[in-house]
Amino acid sequence: MYIKRRYGLSMIIKWTFTALTVSLLYSGLVVALGYYLYKYHEINISIAWQPVSILGTAVAF
Predict the structure, then answer these.
(1) Is pTM, for the whole model, over 0.85?
(2) 45 neighbors 38 (Cβ within 8 angstroms)
(3) Residues 3-47: pLDDT tens digits?
(4) Are 34 and 45 in contact (CB under 8 A)?
């Protein structure tokens, strides 16, 4: 456990590098798959924003 008032940028990068890399790779894969399906197979994947906003509000409280 680290108990300090300030943490250096290198420490923050070391702690979050793996999670950030995995998140960026996953989101890039999802975007590329959506683009591929829309461009070559004319399949449009969309999510209605109303249920997402209701669930987000419910989870926040």
Answers:
(1) no
(2) yes
(3) 777 888 998 899 899 999 999 999 999 999 999 999 999 999 888
(4) yes
Separation of alpha carbons 13 and 15, rounded Å:
5
Taking the C-alpha atoms of residue 58 and residue 55, their distance in angstroms, rounded to an integer, is: 5
Answer yes or no: are the C-beta atoms of 45 and 37 closer than 8 Å: yes
Which two tokens mark 51?
């249920």
Q: DSSP per residue over 10-52, as a string? A: HHHHHHHHHHHHHHHHHHHHHHHHHHHHHHHH-------HHHH
Q: Tell me how long the chain is.
A: 61
